[in-house]
Specification:
heterotrimer; A mainly alpha (295); B alpha+beta (374); C alpha/beta (361); A: mainly alpha; MetI-like fold; two-stranded antiparallel ribbon; 2 strands; globular; C: 361 residues; alpha/beta; D-Maltodextrin-Binding Protein, domain 2; 2 domains; 8-stranded mixed β-sheet
């Protein structure tokens, strides 16, 4: 019984991560072909041992070497990383005050404020991103309002730029930032801030010396929850970004759909996963630390 | 600390450290502090005692600067501190929850306030070491608050609030989270530290025993007002009201009509019973409603009617509470009222004089209790 | 091509005849049929029709090459069809069950035979040209009355594009259509597979890329109609749909479509049956239904694309058959060119160059 319980998560990991990863990794070692599926070799079990040997003999790391030969790939990884970092910081900047506001709001308001944060999630993600296109386009609501107020004379070009991508990412991932920070801030004892003030802190320095360090775990958790999916983000840059928004997700799409080069696309995906393993491990370690601190 | 020597409150020339002048504090419709005036002197160990909701915590928070008076003034060393924010006051507070910073070590917690004062590094180190020695925490300097015991945390909180050598230290239920034995030890430790550092302490507590033990003066509060402020012995022996008498320790209260006779006051309290005789109450007139308060340990219990006793009443043992060193007898008087009498158990229990339903005599001298107007 | 997963998400299951066991799954381009035809097919045959849409050949091809798409009828464009036939993705049509085959137009069939020799695997659904849609008022406001709206110079001359950038230019995100257009502008063979010749187009695109707001293959319909953009390189019927939407909205936007005078790509969307189609018999019924003169006429009248069905022509409305933007005159027809698929090596060069053009990297 006990073994069975342990086996469940392992089977889960095996079925949903290791097996798909092995398949993708195998494709990344294959060669492009005009066929169904569009790569060789494919394993022919009927041929037995000889077939297996022939199969492995044809696999190689050629596609990974290719990734190093064209600067497109590392530039795309780098650009994705940059966009993910900036987005994470912006989300933190917007999310922290919101989380703080909710944590400090009267108890009876919190449930409602929370609803306001979570409610948009009940609508399809695509519809929400699409509505941003309606807001940000040149004839969109934002420009109409700004023109009407008289702040601007010419409509601003926001849609199809990186600014729109950042707006979209911050909007989409905001709850992932707010929830862990709120959880940390909610536990914060108000008397700690009073103690800091009592010992000579201004309100502001009490915030920096007490509130921020004590919500550190929440900030870290929220940042990873935003950073990790953002680096591989595809939908938001495709819909809101311009052609100059270079992200690895789009490169992956092009390898897969335009070049129909599944092996190279798989290699891009494997490398992306390896890059993401670093922050994921750091995230796990942070969670572990938090659990120990709570004991 | 000899109380007969240290009594600045009796010296008309002494300058108070803290003055509450007609201070009122309202939260919406609720009046937490009601037109309160009191002086607290340097080096005092001043206790604010009262049930929860009496306003004692509000008074302390006003001293710390977390609340401002709605009306009236609070002076610290002659200066109005109403507008001074908490971080600019030479006042530190030890919080009921201790409010230790969980992300900092014990050492850093104690150094926290010193660093805010931009004190040179070496001086901070010296001061922190000194505080660690004072509170016997040297071994725990590197630990985090969650790695030490409750008693140690209490000492860290004390060390941290004392580190800046404040003019005034506020202690909010400082021993509330400790178990009884540790609490008693810590009470004496607090007194020692207060004496060593010469800091003025204001302690808030709901525990009358604690207030009586540590304080030079006790202010008994109720509904935003100070009912009585005095030394512990006066509060105990000469409460100014039934509220104070009842709040501090155990007391028998009897109500009746005043009947001044010469240099004594008599009180008629029941048909067919002798009047209670005691020292007079200023301004009491014949027929006025008065109360008589007498502590159980001042009431003697005997089988025979004692001779020459100023007060002697017969009753029946209703209940006996055996407390080890003493026993409390609950004696029912003919009118139904219960009077408690305590006697020391200097004999073995088997040889105890009285048992349930015995007829006994209760007696006390004419100075044992006090008459109270309210 | 990028929004195609939205198209995938917008799956439509037509009809409530869930009880019927037989069903046919059709995968067609978005905005490409009169939905009443779908209902009509169900009513006539009793076969439940499941109709999904896509907006990019790449998405379709990926599904075909992955195999087991589950579709019975798909609609790739000519060059894609050719490559997918080579990969073995389609089955030969059973001509005997296509009684309406005689309706087809030989002018078109001759041209599609270059992708599908003998038209063995596919029938033509629609065909059209790739050209330039303009918001006439805005473009004339920016470039003056004699703006070259009928020429590729409008989009390949940086002097024009610099001015147009302020009102918005969208270009198809399809390298295999845009590169031939650039070659035509340069006077080269649009169907060149020579890497060096193709490379000549790069500086042309690089010069104008900063002024292009977006490379996208479906957003321009709405953007053009709303007045968000003033120029779009796109497919004839899509731009004509934008023209009609703007006219219906009465928002003062006047859209015009032109096949460029330097030559325009002529493309064909072909209906074919995947080799692993679950219900090939129903698929043939659907193809035959589409080849019916009246049905095909209804489809063209609705989507403003020309079709490859000769018999439908008398049934077409005048603003379709009579519009040279849809059914070009002889002279224009002469000026149209077709392309063939790039081999994988050339395809990679083309994609890489296209990425570089779009992103600057």
């Amino acid at each position: 019984m006990r073994r069975l319980l342990i086996a469940v998560p392992f089977l889960w990991l095996l079925a949903l991560f290791i097996v798909p990863f092995a398949i993708v990794f195998k494709i990344s070692l294959s060669d492009l072909a005009v066929a169904i599926p569009p790569y060789t070799p494919t394993l022919d079990i009927a041929e037995g041992w000889a077939g297996l040997k022939a199969f492995f003999a044809e696999l190689d790391f050629e596609n990974y070497i290719w990734l190093t030969e064209d600067d497109l790939y590392w530039k795309a990884y780098l650009s994705s990383f940059k966009i993910a970092v900036i987005s994470t910081l912006l989300t933190l900047l917007v999310g922290y005050p919101i989380a703080y506001g909710i944590a400090r709001a009267p108890q009876e308001w919190r449930a409602m404020l929370f609803m306001l944060v979570i409610l948009p999630f009940w609508t399809s993600f695509l519809i929400r991103v699409y509505s941003w296109m309606g807001i940000l386009s040149q004839e969109g609501y934002l420009n109409q309002v700004l023109l009407w107020i008289g702040v601007i004379n010419e409509p601003l070009i926001i849609l199809n730029t990186n600014i729109a991508v950042y707006i979209g990412i911050v909007y989409t991932y905001l709850p992932f930032m707010i929830l862990p920070i709120y959880a940390a801030l909610e536990k914060l004892d108000i008397s700690l801030l009073e103690a800091a003030e009592d010992l000579g802190c201004s309100r502001f320095s009490a915030f920096w010396l007490v509130t921020v360090p004590l919500s550190k775990q929440g900030i870290i958790a929220g940042s990873f929850l935003v950073f990790i999916p953002t680096i591989g983000e595809f939908v938001i840059p495709s819909l809101l970004g311009g052609s100059r928004t270079l992200m690895i997700g789009k490169v992956l799409w092009e390898e897969f759909f335009s070049n129909r080069d599944w092996p190279v696309a798989s290699a891009v995906a494997v490398v992306l996963l390896l890059i993401l393993i670093i922050p994921i491990v750091l995230f796990q370690r942070n969670e572990q630390k938090q659990r120990e601190a709570n004991q | 600390m000899a109380l007969d020597v240290f009594a600045p409150w009796d010296d008309p020339n002494a300058k108070p450290l803290i003055q509450f002048q007609n201070v009122t504090k309202r939260f919406g419709d609720f009046t937490a502090i009601d037109d309160l005036t009191v002086d607290i002197f340097e080096k005092e160990f001043f206790a604010l005692l009262g049930p929860s909701g009496c306003g004692k915590t509000t008074m302390m928070r006003m001293l710390a600067g977390f609340e401002t008076p709605t009306e009236g003034k609070i002076l610290l060393a002659g200066q109005d501190i109403g507008a001074v924010p908490p971080n600019k006051r030479a006042v530190n507070m030890m919080f009921q929850s201790y409010a230790l910073f969980p992300h900092l070590s014990i050492w850093e917690n104690i150094a926290f306030g010193l660093k805010r004062d931009k004190m040179p590094k070496d001086q901070i180190g010296e001061r922190v070491e000194e505080m660690l020695r004072l509170t016997r925490l040297e071994k725990f300097a590197r630990r985090k608050p969650h790695q030490i015991s409750g008693g140690q945390r209490q000492r860290v909180a004390l060390a941290r609030s004392l580190a800046k050598a404040p003019k005034l230290l506020l202690l909010d239920e400082p021993l509330g989270a400790l178990d009884k034995k540790l609490r008693q030890e810590t009470q004496f430790e607090l007194m020692d530290i207060q004496e060593t550092t010469g800091t003025t302490f204001v302690i808030v507590t709901h525990d009358q025993e604690e207030a009586m033990t540590v304080a030079s003066r006790v202010a008994v509060m109720d509904h935003g007002k100070i009912i009585q402020v005095s030394t512990p012995d006066v509060i105990y022996e000469a409460p100014n009201s039934t509220y104070v008498a009842d709040f501090i320790g155990d007391v028998n209260l009897i109500s009746g009509k005043a009947d001044p006779q010469g240099d004594k006051l008599h009180m008629h309290w029941a048909e067919g019973q002798p009047a209670v005789v005691g020292s007079p109450l200023d301004g009491a007139t014949k027929g006025q409603d008065v109360h008589y308060a007498i502590r159980p340990e001042k009431v003697s219990i005997s089988a025979e009617k004692p001779e020459n006793a100023a007060n002697a009443i017969q009753g029946e043992v209703h209940d006996i509470a055996y407390l080890g060193n003493i026993s409390t007898y609950h004696v029912q008087l003919p009118g139904g009222q219960i009077i408690k009498a305590q006697s020391a158990n200097n004999r073995r229990i088997s040889r105890r004089a009285f048992t349930w339903e015995d007829k006994v005599w209760l007696s006390w001298t004419d100075t044992a209790g006090v008459f109270l107007e309210r | 091509m990028k929004t195609s997963f939205i198209a995938l998400a917008a799956t439509m299951a037509i009809g409530a005849t869930a009880a019927t066991a037989e069903e046919v799954r059709v995968y067609n381009w978005s905005d490409y049929i009169d939905e009443e035809l779908l209902t009509k097919f169900q009513d006539e045959t009793g076969i439940k029709l499941i109709y999904d849409v896509f907006d990019s050949n790449d998405v379709l091809e990926t599904k075909m090459l992955a195999g087991n798409s589950g579709y019975d009828v798909v609609v790739p464009s000519g060059t894609f069809l050719q490559r997918q036939i080579a990969a073995g993705a389609f089955q030969k049509l059973d001509k005997a069950s296509l009684s309406n085959a005689g309706n087809m137009w030989d002018v078109i069939a001759d041209r599609t035979a270059s992708y599908d020799p003998g038209n063995e695997y596919s029938i033509n659904y629609m065909w059209g040209t790739t050209g330039i849609g303009v918001n006439v008022g805005k473009v004339k406001e920016v470039l003056g009355e004699d703006a070259p709206i009928g020429s590729l110079a409008l989009i390949f001359d940086p002097a024009n594009m610099e001015k147009l950038a302020s009102c918005g230019v969208h270009v198809l995100d399809a390298a295999d259509e845009m590169i031939p257009a650039a070659l035509a502008y340069l006077g080269e063979n649009p169907d060149s597979h020579d890497k060096d010749v193709i490379a000549k187009t790069e500086p042309l695109f690089t010069a104008v890329a900063p002024y292009i707001q977006k490379f996208h293959s479906s957003e321009y319909i709405n953007a053009l109609a709303n007045g968000d953009i003033c120029v779009a390189v796109g497919w004839s019927g899509d731009i004509l749909q934008a023209r009609d939407r703007a006219a219906e909205a009465e928002n003062g936007v006047e859209i015009a479509y032109n096949a460029p005078s330097e030559g325009a790509l002529m493309w064909f969307d072909q209906m074919a049956i995947p080799v692993d189609a679950p219900n090939a018999e129903a698929a043939h019924k659907f193809l035959n239904f589409i080849m019916d003169a009246q049905n095909m006429a209804d489809a063209s009248n609705y989507v403003y694309y020309a079709n490859g069905n000769k018999a439908s022509q008398p049934l077409l409305e005048e603003d379709v058959i009579g519009d040279p933007a849809i059914y070009p005159d002889e002279a224009t027809l002469e000026n149209l060119y077709t392309t063939s698929p790039y081999p994988p090596k050339v395809q990679r060069v083309v994609t890489r160059m296209w990425t570089k053009i779009k992103s600057g990297t």
